[in-house]
């Protein structure tokens, strides 16, 4: 499943990428261009805007209600009945993440304590950003897994 998020949903787009979903985020394009991209690339539109309700013969969008990015992720996961995800996309640029084979290669790219305490690193094939477990990414995914198992987040 691939997505395109509208201008109001930048945080949601980043989180969906961290969960492994190919998600375009184009804050500066018009609704008609957004719609065209969605159709051309077979992407599901995520929007806070009711404009798409009026587009004829177009159903591949989800109207997001919450202002809170975590609740927005839940809305997507629940509405589309998503059951699993794997890390795989760069939060910054939507590039594909690949496992770093030699830990030594990222020594200069991450904080020293991270380098010493982590063994698995992922690197974006497009922008070079490096990710590691133990960051907020892991906590976020665990929190979301709990929610999917029926454990609601505590506020
Ligand atoms: Zn990237």
Approximately how much beta-strand content do the residues carry?
Answer: 5-15%
Average of pLDDT: 86
- Envelope shape: elongated
SSE string, helices as H and strands as E: EHEHEEHEHEEH
Low-confidence spans? none
Largest sheet composition: 4 strands, parallel
Give me the side-by-side strand order of the main sheet. Answer: 2-1-3-4
Gyration radius from CA atoms, angstroms: 17 Å
> What is the SS-derived class?
alpha/beta
Portion of residues within helices = 25-40%
Find the count of extended strands (DSSP E, 2+ residues): 7
Q: Please give the alpha-carbon distance between the first and last residues.
A: 30 Å
Number of helices: 5
Ions, cofactors and other bound molecules:
zinc ion
Question: What is the structure about, briefly put?
Answer:
By secondary structure, the protein is α/β, with parallel strands linked by helices. It has helices at residues 10-18, 31-40, 69-79, 112-117, 136-148, and strands at 3-5, 23-25, 44-47, 61-63, 97-99, 121-124, 130-132. The strands form 2 sheets. A 4-stranded parallel β-sheet has the order 2-1-3-4, with helices on both faces. It has a 3-stranded antiparallel β-sheet with strand order 5-6-7, with no helix packed on it.
């Amino acid at each position: 499943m691939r997505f395109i998020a509208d201008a109001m949903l930048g945080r949601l787009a980043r989180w969906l990428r961290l969960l492994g979903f190919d998600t375009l985020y184009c804050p500066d394009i018009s609704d008609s261009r957004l719609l065209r991209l969605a159709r051309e690339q077979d992407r599901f539109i995520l929007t806070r805007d009711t404009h798409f309700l009026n587009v004829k013969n177009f159903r591949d969008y989800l109207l997001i209600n919450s202002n809170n990015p975590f609740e927005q992720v839940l809305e997507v996961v629940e509405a589309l009945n998503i059951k699993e995800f794997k890390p795989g996309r760069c939060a910054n640029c939507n590039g594909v993440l690949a496992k770093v084979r030699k830990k030594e290669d990222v020594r200069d790219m991450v904080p020293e304590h991270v380098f010493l305490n982590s063994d698995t690193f992922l690197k974006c094939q497009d922008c070079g950003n490096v990710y590691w477990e133990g960051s907020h990414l892991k906590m976020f995914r665990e929190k979301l897994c709990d929610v999917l198992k029926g454990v609601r987040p505590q506020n």
